[in-house]
Specification:
Elements lengths: L1 H9 L10 H5 L11 H39 L3 H17 L2 H37 L1 H17 L17 H9 L10
């Protein structure tokens, strides 16, 4: 059993990669006991053939890509135009997706509810302000302000301010009778 464990431990745990590098990354391995030299030679030939095909396909692909670029250039298709088309196509795919439609519907419903809430709130504020304006306390305050306003700034027939009895206030009367101030007589 120890001999089996040693044999197992001596073999690497790595797995060969797929592709071109797989052949070069794995060193020459001993011939499997069931493979003859002739079979090995056939496999080597098949390997070379497949590598050649891969090289040929790479060259054909490069030529096709050059041809594609030339055709696009002749048609006036620039990388920017392609980007725009890709963005447009992607946007169309997004907008037709189920998730987008659900999100759009949810946001639309939320918008309607918010609009209704703001409308209700505006109506409630307007009603409350109207109630305050119609309240007896506000009416009394409004009347007092109006009375004070008329006492302070009433105008007579000449456009000059007057008292409640219609007479011109003393300060204004004295200014009118004295005339404009001169440099010799400073204003009192």
């Amino acid at each position: 059993m120890e001999g089996e464990e040693k044999g197992f431990q001596e073999q690497p745990d790595s797995v060969a990669e797929m592709g071109e590098d797989a052949v070069t990354s794995v060193g020459p391995s001993p011939l499997p006991p069931a493979m003859t030299e002739e079979e090995r030679q056939e496999l080597q030939e098949e390997l070379a053939k497949v590598e050649d095909e891969i090289q040929t396909l790479s060259q054909v692909l490069a030529a096709k890509e050059r041809q594609l670029a030339d055709i696009k250039r002749k048609l006036g298709i620039t990388p920017l135009n392609e980007l725009k088309q890709n963005i447009t196509k992607t946007w169309q795919e997004v907008t037709t997706s189920t998730a987008y439609r659900r999100t759009s519907e949810t946001l639309s419903q939320a918008s309607l509810k918010a609009t209704a809430a703001f409308s209700n709130m505006g109506s409630a504020i307007s009603k409350k302000l109207e109630d305050v304006r119609n309240a007896p306390t506000f009416k009394s305050f409004e009347e007092k302000v109006e009375t004070l306003k008329t006492k302070i700034t009433p105008t007579g027939p000449t456009g000059a301010p007057t008292n409640q009895d219609g007479s011109i206030p003393e300060t204004t009367e004295s200014l009118i009778s004295e005339g404009p101030p001169t440099q010799d007589a400073p204003m009192q």
